[in-house]
Amino acid sequence: MSKEFLTDSYVSYTFTPQAAEVYLAYLFKTEPGVVRPFHHQDAFFVWNQPPISTQAPIMILPRGQHHPRPAWLLDFAIRPGGSVVPQQIWFPQGQGDWRRYVEQAQLQMPVFFMSAEGSIGVPIVNAAAGQMTLRGGNEPAPFGEKTTTKIRIGVCTHPLHGRACHSTFISQWPGYAPSEQQVQLRDQTPARNRVTLERFVKHVGSRVRQFLVVS
Prior knowledge:
alpha+beta; 2 domains; two-stranded antiparallel ribbon; 6 helices; 8 strands; 26% helix; globular
């Protein structure tokens, strides 16, 4: 396990290092120690060929070797600018949820919103208005054959070192309630085509803007 991934990645900043380990175990359906992320340039990759992912690998030349190997993008190293809002990772509630949402589910690699210039993230106002130019923005959103997904925003309890959440409820967002909204991944045409990545980001931006606007 790369210590850098557990301290300097967006997954770790969002969910805490401990939850990041659990996330890897769920994603790859194995023990966390089996998955070994490595830091390359400004990102984290894995050598493990994830049969769960439709994401195309990137060819990387390991140190001391003469032939590149396929690697899959797992996360990015934290960059200056913007904020990472701590959240509580969603866990299956009981054995039935575990089978449905982890064991029998085809989980996907993380999805990042990257601009054409290489910056990560989209301002909410721009996303909700559909004013953005993303890498791969006109390609189908990478969610496999799913027709919907859920956007969950946790009203986090009091943070531990600005990163984690206690179980005792001390609202970090006075006036707000937790939000869970369904997002369509297919259009309304008879063919029910998959929405593009930019269209999906617009849906996400609209949901987040609705969450932030309270009376």
